[in-house]
């Protein structure tokens, strides 16, 4: 397909404009975390590391960070186990209702967060009689983190096929040995990519967390929301937001690189 020079320039301009709309506000947040002016005059007249030092000593931000890390790691671990098992069941076997089960697994990530949050809140408090806390937030995060792991593992299993596993078993290896020496090494990068994406998704989540996290607890996104308009907290909020941007970008970047590793057979 050939495009005229004018069309190419228009497409390039649209691309640049779209990226600017997405990333310029993030750049502003990063720069304001070093802005010496507490009113955030633009452009910054001078820069300082004072806000980073204060953020590192802020007990509320540190507690919220630890809560986010705990929830993210636990939800990711649950998602890796259940998402992988579901992917194997649906990819390796044919049974009645297979497509419907696949839809039910993927559906949580497509539902509006507020719907998921209200539904889980009612289920925990009214039906199960469980008090809201870190545990309920972890379970809530796992419901949509499973989808990320499931999609990554299913995609890798489809590319792998079954020839190598069949050859391994024809040569005398049992199912466990075949999984350990053949299947798992080829799935390793897909599992790591799915885990990184799941952690990033959990770490950033705010809507479902609001409905499922107990009182007295805050994740980092909720801490930012609660402190955004408090006096003298804006500089520290910018630092925490900058950390959140970096903490979210790195796992997504690594996951993208690992997911694109199709020629190495999943080797890291």
From TrEMBL:
<dbReference type="Pfam" id="PF00528">
    <property type="entry name" value="BPD_transp_1"/>
</dbReference>
<feature type="transmembrane region" description="Helical">
    <location>
        <begin position="69"/>
        <end position="89"/>
    </location>
</feature>
<dbReference type="GO" id="GO:0055085">
    <property type="term" value="P:transmembrane transport"/>
</dbReference>
<keyword id="KW-1003">Cell membrane</keyword>
<keyword id="KW-1133">Transmembrane helix</keyword>
<dbReference type="InterPro" id="IPR000515">
    <property type="entry name" value="MetI-like"/>
</dbReference>
<keyword id="KW-0813">Transport</keyword>
<feature type="transmembrane region" description="Helical">
    <location>
        <begin position="190"/>
        <end position="214"/>
    </location>
</feature>
<feature type="transmembrane region" description="Helical">
    <location>
        <begin position="101"/>
        <end position="120"/>
    </location>
</feature>
<feature type="transmembrane region" description="Helical">
    <location>
        <begin position="132"/>
        <end position="154"/>
    </location>
</feature>
<comment type="similarity">
    <text>Belongs to the binding-protein-dependent transport system permease family. CysTW subfamily.</text>
</comment>
<dbReference type="InterPro" id="IPR035906">
    <property type="entry name" value="MetI-like_sf"/>
</dbReference>
<feature type="transmembrane region" description="Helical">
    <location>
        <begin position="234"/>
        <end position="254"/>
    </location>
</feature>
<dbReference type="InterPro" id="IPR051789">
    <property type="entry name" value="Bact_Polyamine_Transport"/>
</dbReference>
<feature type="domain" description="ABC transmembrane type-1">
    <location>
        <begin position="65"/>
        <end position="255"/>
    </location>
</feature>
<dbReference type="GO" id="GO:0005886">
    <property type="term" value="C:plasma membrane"/>
</dbReference>
<protein>
    <submittedName>
        <fullName>Spermidine/putrescine ABC transporter permease</fullName>
    </submittedName>
</protein>
<keyword id="KW-0472">Membrane</keyword>
<keyword id="KW-0812">Transmembrane</keyword>
<feature type="transmembrane region" description="Helical">
    <location>
        <begin position="9"/>
        <end position="34"/>
    </location>
</feature>
């Amino acid at each position: 397909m050939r495009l005229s020079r004018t069309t190419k320039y228009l497409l390039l301009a649209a691309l640049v404009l779209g990226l600017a709309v997405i990333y310029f506000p993030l750049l502003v947040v990063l720069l304001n975390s070093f802005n010496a002016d507490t009113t955030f005059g633009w452009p910054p007249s001078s820069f300082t590391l004072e806000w980073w030092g204060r953020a590192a000593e802020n007990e509320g931000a540190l507690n919220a960070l630890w809560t986010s890390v705990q929830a993210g790691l636990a939800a990711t671990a649950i998602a890796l186990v259940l998402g992988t098992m579901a992917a194997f069941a649906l990819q390796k076997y044919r049974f009645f209702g297979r497509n419907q089960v696949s839809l039910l697994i993927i559906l949580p990530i497509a539902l509006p967060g507020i719907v998921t949050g209200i539904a889980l809140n009612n289920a925990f408090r009214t039906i199960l009689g469980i008090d809201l806390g870190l545990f309920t937030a972890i379970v809530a995060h796992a419901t949509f983190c499973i989808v990320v792991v499931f999609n990554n593992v299913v995609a890798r299993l489809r590319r792998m096929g079954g020839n190598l596993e069949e050859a391994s078993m024809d040569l005398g290896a049992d199912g466990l040995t075949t999984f350990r020496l053949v299947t798992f090494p080829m799935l390793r990068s897909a599992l790591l990519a799915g885990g990184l994406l799941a952690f990033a998704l959990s770490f950033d989540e705010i809507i479902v967390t609001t409905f499922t996290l107990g009182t007295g607890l805050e994740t980092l996104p909720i801490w930012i929301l609660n402190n955004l308009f408090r006096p003298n907290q804006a500089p520290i909020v910018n630092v925490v937001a900058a950390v959140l941007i970096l903490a979210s970008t790195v796992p997504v970047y690594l996951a993208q690189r690992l997911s694109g590793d199709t020629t190495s057979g999943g080797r890291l």
